[in-house]
UniProtKB/TrEMBL annotation:
Pfam families: PALP
Substrates-to-products reaction catalysed: (1S,2R)-1-C-(indol-3-yl)glycerol 3-phosphate + L-serine = D-glyceraldehyde 3-phosphate + L-tryptophan + H2O
Protein role: The beta subunit is responsible for the synthesis of L-tryptophan from indole and L-serine.
Species the sequence originates in: Candidatus Gottesmanbacteria bacterium RIFCSPHIGHO2_01_FULL_40_15
Protein name: Tryptophan synthase beta chain
Amino acid sequence: MRAKIILEENELPENFININYYLKKFLGKLPDPPLNPETHKPVGAADLEAIFAKELIKQEATLKEVVGIPEEVRKKMSGYRPTPLFRAGSLEKILDTPAHIYYKYEGASPVGSHKMNTALVQAYYNRKQGIKTLITETGAGQWGSALSLACFYFGLKCLVFMVRISYDQKPYRKTVMNIYGAEVRPSPSATTEYGKLLLKDNKNHAGSLGIAISEALESVVKGREARYSLGSVLNHVLLHQTVIGQEAKKQMEKTGEYPDIIIGCCGGGSNFAGIAFPFLADGLKGERENTKFIAVEPESCPSLTHGAYRYDFGDSAQMTPLLKMKTLGSDFIPSPIHAGGLRYHGVAPQVAFLHEEGLIDSKTYGQPEVFKAAIIFARSEGIIPAPESAHAIKAAIDEAIRARDEGRKKVILFNLSGHGLLDLGGYEGYLAGHLK
Ligand SMILES: *Cc1c(COP(=O)(O)O)cnc(C)c1O
């Protein structure tokens, strides 16, 4: 049987915690800063103000240990947080493992993923600054759904460029965004210069996250009282996700255990950072040793595992500042796997830095073995995971089997970043045996 470890509403974290503070203080090093592509000097706050809300730019560069969560945001978060932590008793039994497997369930948010956490903060600060519209891109649609709802809560308009292949393959996500009042355009679209350029070459262009980001940015620059919003990769986004790991830490304390292994799937790196950073801070402070952190990627888009550690653009049209990432190249177009949220050419600078420093590990899996793990999980725990999250499940199962083979008890914690109830097309394909 699975067991549920819950927190009271008043145990919702009051702050986000900032990994850069710990890196500077205990490692004496920080990830390299974003650069202006023309001057190759670090970008100043002023360069970014046309694109992002000022408070978020401040958070991007902050070296404070903690950043307070605004009361209005906490109120909205308390509608679904603290999220439950489960001990996967049934899965442990099926695997016949001495390992204890725990998972934090972010599918409990109203849009079904962790992305709601940062969407609320971003919408709040843009509204506070008097911005009227937020423009963004979305891959599989989870980020677009989260931002749509957050904009609705805070009275902002929302425009979403959705990667065309997902727009066609996952029409229900578009409906979700429309329900919350957002406008959704397939990307590449005929509404931007960059989109028109790509469509001229190929009117059936499948699109990519990098392209959709370029279109969103172009629209922000042309728009009035509009700003851009990103669902992963940047420091401030990873910062907002640390509510996940802070809650998980409290919940693990209630079990009397501390994880030996912490796992998250990794697209841009935000849900992995969310679960990992609060525990990593313990390690940097010297309070814990030997905790292993694993970021899990698809074989078809292994930016952290096989990417080059260098400065690269965050988008295809090369409009963003240069970010020091592990990258497959800003023109890389990954194959159209079902885990659309993991199809990004780069990874967050903070996550790339930690990997380079040897503080975290990474791992890749192919699509069929990931879906197989997802089905084992659904048939033991009942929850149908998002294909993205299933990457973390596959790694957790492998670690549990290794613990069994070595005859050692291990405490495994993974982040279940979202549910897969709008990803049934992928499951259908897998069950019918035609998934590559
Ligand atoms: C977007 C998404 C991801 C990947 O993004 P990260 O920034 O790496 O977390 C993973 N899981 C789900 C459910 C998502 O929606």
